Amino acid sequence: MSEQKTTRDQPSLNVGKLIRWIAGILLLALIGWRVYQTAFIEGSYGPDTWMRFIIAGLIIGGMYSLIAIGYTLVYGILFMINFAHGEVMMLGAFGGYFIFELLASIKAPSVSDPNMNFLNAYPVISVLLAFIVGTVVSAVAGLLLERIAYRPLRKAPRLVPLISAIGASIFLQNAAQLLFGPQRRQYINPVILWRGTGWSIPVGDTTVLLTYTGTLSLVLSALLMIGLFLVVQKTRLGRSMRAVAENKQAAALMGIDVDDVIGKTFIISGVLAGAAGVMWGIHNGLFNHYVGFLPGIKAFTAAVLGGIGNIPGAMMGGMLLGLLESVGPAALGIDFQLKDVIAFTILILVLIFRPSGLLGEALSEEKV
To answer: Where are the alpha helices (H) located in 79-211, listed in sequence order?
Structure first.
């Protein structure tokens, strides 16, 4: 009877899959026609404007990638989604902000200007200190999350750590609001990183500005992603992380301290989130205690888009999501305030048509 039931269910499954693919092809055709109509027939934007959209998408995409890698690292080892990861990024943004405020209040008189402060007199050191403090704050927050909110629930059903992660996210948001206040704050960058200055890129008969803050974010995002990939692939810690992700019991039998590896994984994910938080503040300026929520959810979308548990997939998914979010409203001819709708629509479509992501979901045999 079981064989008859399997044979009877198989055609219906194939029909359902066929219907989904037909719907997907029709949807892609509709989107393609809309993009062609907006970009080529109506010609609402010139080449310089499209280049601005692309640059903005790459910059924000680099930040999404760094946060998405944190989701992927934790998921690959614990098979859980750390929904408090956006708040870890938020704490990093506050850490960098307070360092800039402190350095701006310290006088560093020079021959040319006796009123010069440390922030503008030594901009490279100031930015380096902001990133160090922001990443350390986020790394400590990530480690404490693992020790307090997740480690006691490691053997609990999968839904329990997920609920704990959501509770931790709400707790961190409200704690930051009580500690730092609900008002929006603004990064006071060094003069050399003033948001209105940058490189002029020729595009046709005009030029497009690539700001220094955007350049810093792009370069640092690329370096951090390359560095993480090398750590995971070439170092002893990386081999231990991959072994624990594959099989915790076997890794423990081989002499690997599983708890230590998991703790270091949360530290690494916190460092990347903290760097993204400082980049967000330096490039965008305004932020508050709620700043990590939407980037965190979008980074989760990027991780799913690339393939959850897949580090190159998280990198690619973040960059792709940033580009789609930046270029999408203009290409589709819709209001730019609907860019968040595009991001979450992508999440829904990926879950429907390719749940494993573009590069495939990385799972060990025991998780399948």
So the answer is: 85-105, 118-121, 123-144, 159-180
Confidence of residue 262 (pLDDT cuts 50, 70, 90): very high
Q: How many structural domains are present in the chain? A: 2
Residue the block writes with tokens 């405020």: 101
Same domain, 127 and 216: yes
268's tokens: 């690494």
Range(s) of the domain holding residue 32:
1-43
β-strands 286-287, 198-203 pairing: unpaired
Q: Which two tokens stand for residue 158?
A: 């999968």
Q: For the residues 318-328, what does the mean pLDDT come to?
A: 91
Euclidean distance between CA atoms 94 and 297, whole angstroms = 19
Amino acid at 11: P
pLDDT of residue 138: 96
pTM above 0.90, yes or no: no
Q: Alpha-carbon distance 265 to 85, whole Å?
A: 13
Q: What radius of gyration, in Å, describes the C-alpha atoms of the chain? A: 23
Answer whether residue 145 is part of any domain: yes
Strands, E assignment, the chain: 185-186, 198-203, 206-211, 286-287
The rounded percent of the chain whose pLDDT value lies above 90 is 47
Q: How confident is the model at residue 30 (pLDDT cuts 50, 70, 90)?
A: confident
